[in-house]
Structures are given as structure tokens and as C-alpha cells.
Amino acid sequence: MAWQRKTPFGYMVRDGETVPCPAEADAVQDIFTRYLAGATYNEIAERMSRGNTPYHQHTSQWNKHMIKRILENGKYLGTDIYSRIISDDEFLAVQLQKKDRTDFAPCPAGLKPIREKAVCAVCGGGIKRDTKSHGQSRWVCPDCGAIVRISDETVQRLVSQQLRQLADTPDLLMPPPTPEAAPSADALRIQNELNLCFNRQDINPDYMKTLIFAAAAEQYAVLPDLTPVHDMEVLRERLKTGCVNDSDLQELLAKAVKAIRIGGQDYIELELTNGTMIGKEQRV
Ligand SMILES: [Zn+2]
User: Which residues surround ligand 1, an ion (CB under 5 A)?
Assistant: First the structure.
């Protein structure tokens, strides 16, 4: 085991007195700031390892335990020996977030509508948000086993970026050409029966009438529901008038987006109900 530091990280002893070590105190502040911005212990440790402020003198390597200890060290609030490096507010915010992140990371409200439409970019199966591993959020595809590590913040940021892009180009919401409705098997059978009857002299006219109505009802039943197309038209016209707010984006997500494809740290694509894809390619 490497020898332990005699003084906590952030401090040094000068003339028998414990004083802040400027470079280390800055690093402590940086670690708190990064953690609050959503970085994980490991991410911070990697970053610190690349920097010029070692935890142990003999190696530049940092690990997540060092980061964790620093984030939990109450000496940074100041004591009779150690001067203050971190504010009460910041220290408290970290402790609260730490509890959230390790116990269970609840799904942020803004993520819920996204989660409902999230699919795996590899296989197209439903992908699940999973926070059981170290409270760090990742997405796991139960179908193909793909695992995507991406923070909740990033998911929300990318999706709202793309929704905004969509809102800026409402013509992407054009409905697809309505496919010709294929007649149902029953409709074909009724039509056949009707054709036969037309060629018979002895047929009851009321029976013919019944058949004609039945054929019409069958044809009507297979007509596609045009409500979503109409909804989209209304939305598109409204977006064209400019001025897009958050609730417009939410409505876009609910009505125009069929699936949110998650496939990597910064790879998220929106598949619209009309088949259009919004994603990296369109982002400049
Ligand atoms: Zn998959």
C-alpha cells in the first residue's frame, strides 16, 4: 500500500501550521463543481489523473475512492485547524446529490415522456433506463444487450435540441401520403356475394340492400384514422407562426415523435410518426 498523505488533500503544513495548498484547494473546488454538474467519481478521477495535481506525490493516478473521500470530507467547511475551501451550500448540495445518486436515481420528470418512446438504435427494441449500477444512469436493451452510458441531462439536452430543430423546420412534419386502404377479407367476401346476386333473377331485393350496406360499412371500417394527421397539421401551422415555447416542444414530442433512438453517448435520433429522422446528420 502506498504511503498515505499526512495532511488531507487541499492542505499543506508550513512552519508547523496547516494552511491551504493553493493548487490542491483549487482542485478540491473543481471536484465539487464537476460533481454537481453531473460528472461521476470515475470521470472526475480520470480528469484529475490527466492534470498536474497528484493526490499522492509518487503517482499522477487518481481513483474514484479519492474523489469520494474528498466529496465527503467535512474539513473543507473549515475547522479550528483547517481553513474553509468549500461553502456550506455547495457541500450540502453534494451530500444530497450523492445520496440520490447512490441509493437510486429517480427518473427526472422531463425524462419520463422520453423514456416512453426510447428505443435501441441497434435493434429497434424498447430500451430501458437503468440506474441500479452505482446510481449512474445508463440505458440497457433487453433484446440485444446494448448498453449506452449517457447522463439524464445529456438525453434531455439532445432531445430538446432536436425538438427545437424540428420546431424551426415545421415542414418536416408533413404527413406521409396516405396509403390506399386495402379491403378487408370480409369486404371481399361481401363484394363477391353481391356480384353473384346481381346475376341471379330470383334474389330478394332486401337481401341485396343488406349486402350493399354491409359492403359500404366494411369499406368505411378500414379507412385510416386521420385524426393524427389533422393534429399534426394544426401543430405545423402553429409552429410556422414562430415563437416556440417548452409546451410546444412537449406537444411535438407527444404527437410527432414515434421513437427516440438511443445508440451512444451523443447519438440520439428522433423518428417522427411520418417516417422522417431527426438526428446527427441534420445537426450542424
Ligand atoms: Zn437492442
Answer: 120, 122-123, 125, 141, 143-144, 146
Q: What angle do CA 267, 272, 277 make, to 5 degrees?
A: 45
Query: Is the pLDDT at 106 greater than 80, yes or no?
Result: no
| Distance (Å, whole) CA 10 – CA 83 | 10
Q: Compute how many other C-beta atoms are within 10 angstroms of the C-beta atom of residue 201.
A: 4
CA of 176 to the centre of ligand 1 (A): 27
Say how many Å lie between the CA of residue 129 and the centre of ligand 1.
13
Dihedral angle of Cα 27, 32, 33, 35, to the nearest 10 degrees? 120
Whether the CB-CB separation of 28 and 10 falls below 8 Å is answered with yes
Take residue 1 and report the three cell numbers written for it: 500500500
Per residue in 224-256, pLDDT tens?
677 777 888 888 888 888 778 888 889 889 988
Among candidates 11, 25, 267, 40, which has minimal Cα distance to 162?
267
Indicate yes or no: pTM above 0.90: no
Distance 259 CA to ligand 1 centre (A): 13
Residue 57 in 3-state DSSP? coil
Nearest Cα residue to 67 out of 88, 85, 40: 40
